Amino acid sequence: MLRGFYTAASGMIAQQRQQEAFSNNISNANTPGYKADQTTLHAFPEMLMNRIGGKGNQISVNSSMQFPIHQSIGALNTGVYVQETIPNFRQGDIRETGSTTDLALVNGELPNQSANLFFTVQNEAGEVRYTRNGNFTVDGQGYLVTNQGYYVLDQEGQPIQTNGMEFTVTANGMLRTPEQTAALNIAYTPDANNMVKEGNNLFAGEVDEMPADVTFSIKQGFLERSNVDSLQSMTQMMESYRMFETNQRVLKAYDESMGKAVSEIGRLV
């Protein structure tokens, strides 16, 4: 009976973690470049239950020697858990904003479905991070930054000086001002699933040199929207909540059975 408690409780914990992922997706449905989280459930190992001994479950060698035989009862499931949460890197829709500081990174030819491209930025600790959110602005010193104030880096790994809002970005990622030209550092990874999601729409991980056959384009005055499907996320959240309630009822039934075992079956007559 105690195993039933653990099985039902593990189901409730797994559904709670799914609820958290779905809630986070819905809250970021309007965040540019946001990649929806996907959870994967995995079952704990099954246990094969056998009955040993008992009447009719023995084999006799002679009158003085008897050996118990195993009678298979069946498999016992021990619950589920959330194995991992991984982002869905499908590209979001592109919408026009008209702002010169908004940049949309549009994927072209990629070698496989797992490959992806990112803008390169520098966080407050001076570490290189990657993002699909091109909702940039210009800070007080004239540098191109994210809304959190992180520097957007060029191919030399340096912050990009724009000296104001008057700049243009070509389709191949060249940022031009009246004073200078800089190339946006577009990072390439052959497997985006290896990237680690951090806060503020940033990713950490290793990137490779961009292959010659990879193509992309930068659209100035546009943004990549979040790839969250709000309707689907709401439906999944409701399904997860129903599963949580089901496990909760199972746990309550086990609790009532345990109470009867203690107060009634175990009562001395």
Automatic annotation (TrEMBL):
Positions of the Flagellar basal body rod protein N-terminal domain: 5-35
Alphabetical UniProt keywords: Bacterial flagellum
Tree of life domain: Bacteria
Limits of the Flagellar hook protein FlgE/F/G-like D1 domain: 118-174
Pfam families: Flg_bb_rod, Flg_bbr_C, LlgE_F_G_D1
GO cellular component, one term: bacterial-type flagellum basal body
Location within or outside the cell: Bacterial flagellum basal body
Gene Ontology BP, a term: bacterial-type flagellum-dependent swarming motility
InterPro entries in alphabetical order: Flag_bb_rod_N, Flagellar_FlgE/F/G, Flg_bb/hook_C_dom, FlgE/F/G-like, LlgE_F_G-like_D1
Residue span(s) of domain Flagellar basal-body/hook protein C-terminal: 219-262
Similarity comment text for this entry: Belongs to the flagella basal body rod proteins family.
PANTHER family membership: FLAGELLAR BASAL-BODY ROD PROTEIN FLGG (PTHR30435:SF19), FLAGELLAR PROTEIN (PTHR30435)
Name of the protein this chain belongs to: Distal rod protein
Record organism: Virgibacillus massiliensis
Protein's gene: flgG_1
